[in-house]
Fold this sequence. Notes:
The complex is a heterodimer of chains A (about 375) and B (about 675).
Chain A: E1 2-8, E2 14-19, H1 23-32, E3 38-50, E4 56-75, E5 80-87, E6 99-103, E7 110-114, H2 119-128, E8 137-143, E9 146-153, E10 156-164, H3 175-196, E11 204-209, H4 213-228, H5 231-235, E12 240-244, H6 253-258, H7 260-266, H8 270-287, E13 292-294, H9 296-304, E14 308-314, H10 323-338, E15 342-346, H11 351-358, E16 362-366, H12 371-375
Parallel strand pairs in A: 8-11, 11-12, 14-15
Antiparallel strand pairs in A: 1-2, 2-7, 3-4, 3-7, 4-5, 5-6, 8-9, 9-10, 13-16, 14-16
Helix pairs in contact in A: 1-2, 8-11
Chain B: H1 2-23, H2 26-29, H3 34-40, H4 50-67, H5 73-87, H6 91-108, H7 114-123, H8 128-145, H9 153-157, H10 163-167, H11 169-176, H12 181-193, H13 202-205, H14 207-212, H15 221-234, H16 236-244, E1 249-257, H17 263-273, H18 279-291, H19 307-312, E2 319-324, E3 328-334, H20 342-350, E4 354-360, H21 365-370, H22 375-385, E5 391-396, H23 405-422, E6 429-433, H24 449-454, H25 460-466, E7 479-487, E8 493-501, E9 503-505, E10 509-513, E11 517-526, E12 529-531, E13 533-535, E14 539-545, E15 557-559, E16 567-577, E17 584-585, E18 588-594, E19 597-610, E20 617-620, E21 624-625, E22 630-642, E23 654-659, E24 662-673
Helix pairs in contact in B: 4-5, 4-15, 6-7, 7-8, 11-15
Amino acid sequence: xxxxxxxxxxxxxxxxxxxxxxxxxxxxxxxxxxxxxxxxxxxxxxxxxxxxxxxxxxxxxxxxxxxxxxxxxxxxxxxxxxxxxxxxxxxxxxxxxxxxxxxxxxxxxxxxxxxxxxxxxxxxxxxxxxxxxxxxxxxxxxxxxxxxxxxxxxxxxxxxxxxxxxxxxxxxxxxxxxxxxxxxxxxxxxxxxxxxxxxxxxxxxxxxxxxxxxxxxxxxxxxxxxxxxxxxxxxxxxxxxxxxxxxxxxxxxxxxxxxxxxxxxxxxxxxxxxxxxxxxxxxxxxxxxxxxxxxxxxxxxxxxxxxxxxxxxxxxxxxxxxxxxxxxxxxxxxxxxxxxxxxxxxxxxxxxxxxxxxxxxxxxxxxxxxxxxxxxxxxxxxxxxxx
Amino acid sequence: xxxxxxxxxxxxxxxxxxxxxxxxxxxxxxxxxxxxxxxxxxxxxxxxxxxxxxxxxxxxxxxxxxxxxxxxxxxxxxxxxxxxxxxxxxxxxxxxxxxxxxxxxxxxxxxxxxxxxxxxxxxxxxxxxxxxxxxxxxxxxxxxxxxxxxxxxxxxxxxxxxxxxxxxxxxxxxxxxxxxxxxxxxxxxxxxxxxxxxxxxxxxxxxxxxxxxxxxxxxxxxxxxxxxxxxxxxxxxxxxxxxxxxxxxxxxxxxxxxxxxxxxxxxxxxxxxxxxxxxxxxxxxxxxxxxxxxxxxxxxxxxxxxxxxxxxxxxxxxxxxxxxxxxxxxxxxxxxxxxxxxxxxxxxxxxxxxxxxxxxxxxxxxxxxxxxxxxxxxxxxxxxxxxxxxxxxxxxxxxxxxxxxxxxxxxxxxxxxxxxxxxxxxxxxxxxxxxxxxxxxxxxxxxxxxxxxxxxxxxxxxxxxxxxxxxxxxxxxxxxxxxxxxxxxxxxxxxxxxxxxxxxxxxxxxxxxxxxxxxxxxxxxxxxxxxxxxxxxxxxxxxxxxxxxxxxxxxxxxxxxxxxxxxxxxxxxxxxxxxxxxxxxxxxxxxxxxxxxxxxxxxxxxxxxxxxxxxxxxxxxxxxxxxxxxxxxxxxxxxxxxxxxxxxxxxxxxxxxxxxxxxxxxxxxxxxxxx
Lengths: 387, 675
């Protein structure tokens, strides 16, 4: 993301102009834009004109519109952000108050105006515009009959392709069917890799599986590459990294990212550090339950006592529709920072963030034990049960 | 402008049209031939016997009451009330009828169909003697005719049974009317809602039917229908006795243990000793294994068939083989021992009745397999949680310790303590010393002098022979879990799996769940032998038609179309947490293993922490679940799955939770949330 200008008043209101450059920037934009914000962007609109004789013609016009956002739609797979709202600046084609849906486009400037730019939003802008943090890793987690081809970007894990196949089991006299099924499966995974992984971008491709599936697959792939002369694979052979995973499901990526060999390669991505943090939270919960808490109420109480060492919070909480609630969370983050705690905002697009989301979205590791918190029952945690 | 309006109008109307079609079923638009339509419509004038048909239908259900299990009881009650209405009896008349029926049943048992009884009782206005006379007269007539019926394999099989059984008409029909059953079941369902149409499904009236039952041509039409219905429902137990009564009982054994404990070799050797493997094949294995320098694996090759397994020298998927003992037909499932293949092992163990735990007696090897992280522990816990309660422990490779009694005792003592904790009764666990590679103490009593000095117990084969075969829930509604899908030799495709409950006949209609598609059973085979009927506990491969192969996945359940298996994404379970590195919290992502199904799931709610022994609630809404705790939780699965409450169907009510290749908990389903 490129920051074009920033114009923020003392009271926190103002506008910022940004140019998204990568698909991932759409994710940042999605996290920045809230309902009620004003967005100006160039867009294409079908305009109908009526001539004096009564016949009308419609043509598509590129124009710049300013809308007040009412609904936000984000397609994680295509990384497309759609903003629907009413036009608030009259222009020659579009009347005031007419509905329009803005599709934010790559490499086109958009201006975002908010009544209040809070610390979390500003931090997001900063993070989005940081050019250093872009290292893409592709990962294929698989087991016999199931594979996920994923792309891990700094703030997102995208499942590019899921291969779910039935492989007949070995049975007396029918071993060929098993082996045939296996080869078909490998072929599908290989096609998935070729189609969805851009070797010019990714730093490395992790192949992870239980047992020998990964070795077998790698052998198969290389054999095919040589046989069919697939240059792409042969040239990038060194980019492949074989590690162990317990299954072919997506959340076993968590184990993959904890693997030392992988850590060394991708240590700068957010994904790995988040997994590590969450893991440390769980170990703390096991060893010293009085020093690890989750749920808004518990964490707030811990914050009041200035006890928080690391605060983990999912960005999903900041995307909530309720402005007051967002304010509360921003307040919590700010005060925790003031108290000297380390605040990490997890991306809900990563496996670790998904897990944190399930765990009420907020968790903290404390500096000192607070057993009194443990006894107070977390009745209010029900707030989050439904999401 | 006007033109535009036209265009718009056209679009609108198009859309209307589309909506119209959308609201309709497509089938309604397609035409139906009058004769087809007729079959499905009720026409009062067509069949004078319609009312009596209906009555009989009711009666037959009434009889089921006694046979039916508690599960089906509710539906039965409903039918019974309709039955009374159908007969239009007053209360005291009904009581009279009941007592007469009781008396008659004392005389005839089940040999005479219920509706005949009812008929005659009503005919003679509750006069027991007259009714009895009439039935007896009819019966002798029938007996005379019976020899004309071509004898049936089924009849020959049941020679031991009293002669009456042979005469018993329902049983004759058993084999003959099978293809009709699905239709009959349908009739039932309709009967629940609109009783009149009950016996009039088109198939019942098709001439083909009559051809199939020549012996019953003298019977009234409605009787025939009735008996078929009854046949289908009444019999699972009787059918089981007929088919299996004279056979050796089937026993499924899963072989478990740490990697390289010698499971496959032991089983391979056992099969060779029993003559299940031909000399030639064995010789081939010997030569080939020698070629790649793994001669000690030659017996294991009997079960490890894929190239990968042979090259690596480990079992990766469950191998299957069978042999016979004195009293049993034993099917062994050779599970992989490697930690990475535990999902496969769970699939195997889920189908087994009893387990054979193999431990390596070699110094150091037993310890490494038994200590934390070894599979001996995990496997034993897993099979116990999967409902296996009889276990034989073979202390393998004892020849490497020179048949030392000390070592044997050492190992058995350690295991005894552990197995007791795991929940095995002392009386259900047997220890056998043996050696798989040399074949000592497998099928014959030991010849080794060192071993004879201190061991006088049974050999492995005898131990297997002594296992108790669990009761098969034959009379419950049909359930079968699918663990393999493959292309068969003929048309269609096959699914293999274990029948958990009930009976499956060739020609039955089954519901493939959770996708809820109807399929028809084209053929079925048990252990590669074609059969017409299979019972709970059997592992069968079923050729299905009516569904696409792509739409069936491992872990699906075939279910009775009437009494369906529940499908849900969310359920409540009681968990027993094993040794876990990190505690279980809300939102914990896990893999759930349910029969052969593996699916991602989340623990969405921790409801209560329970006391381990008493089961009382220690804490509501705990923050996390630590080691060895027992708790009630709610689990949400990412895709709908078929699951049953433990109290309804035990096999389908058990789940395993695994994370990162470690089993963290086992659970029983206590409640199913509706979606």
